[in-house]
Amino acid sequence: MRAHLFCALATAGALSTNNLRDARFSCSIVGDSLLAGLVAGGEGGFEPVAKVVVNELKKLILTPVDIRVSAEPLRTAGQVEVALSEELKSRTPGAVVILAGTNDLWRCDADATFKSLKRMYENCAKAGVRHVVGITLPPFTADATQWFSIVDLPQRIEATRSAVNDNIRDAAPVLLDLAADAEADAATYVQPDGIHFTRAGYRALGLRVAETLEEALIGRKAPPRTAIYPGLKKPPPAR
């Protein structure tokens, strides 16, 4: 019960740099436990991705930044779609960040999962959202999947994830390839339970979300990051 309450406090409402009435750039982050920042391992709790996004965008955007988050553990793609629909009814943000499908991998139905994601992208476009970020699904190797190895469930889940990610790469208006990032830098994106990241991993994800939004906003690759968090490699000095 306490975990659910903390999640609600951590992921509902808005994180802003100024009064929301004065906000000029708005962004909605919708998804499951990976965008909620559910921490794996002994620490537990949450490391909200949105906190890093707000702090990083403040460095680039001089106007106030309004970030609203609707992200909860165990949400399916269909439930994320409903949450996004409710968000778009309440306002039209300048940007939307979507990560969904993690909790659908068990079903091994890539087509159904992607149809839901595609509808989300299309609904954002119809609502007038200027920047829609689609995030690929990171590795999924939960221990429980090994219990069903006799029916090749781990292999089927991986095939589903790969197919969904290929579709996201093709269809996302703005792509954040978390799957590629996590596979290339497993030391940062550690997944103790095979699904969720550590605090350092969520901070890294927050930086990537901010970088992706910055690139979309300014129309070119984002400048080098100045914030260094534990677990992230320090960028090389400028020459």
TrEMBL record:
CDD domains: SGNH_hydrolase. The lineage of its organism: Eukaryota, Sar, Stramenopiles, Ochrophyta, Pelagophyceae. It comes from the Eukaryota. It comes from Pelagomonas calceolata. GO terms for molecular function: phosphatidylcholine lysophospholipase activity. This is SGNH hydrolase-type esterase domain-containing protein. Residues 30-204 form the SGNH hydrolase-type esterase domain.
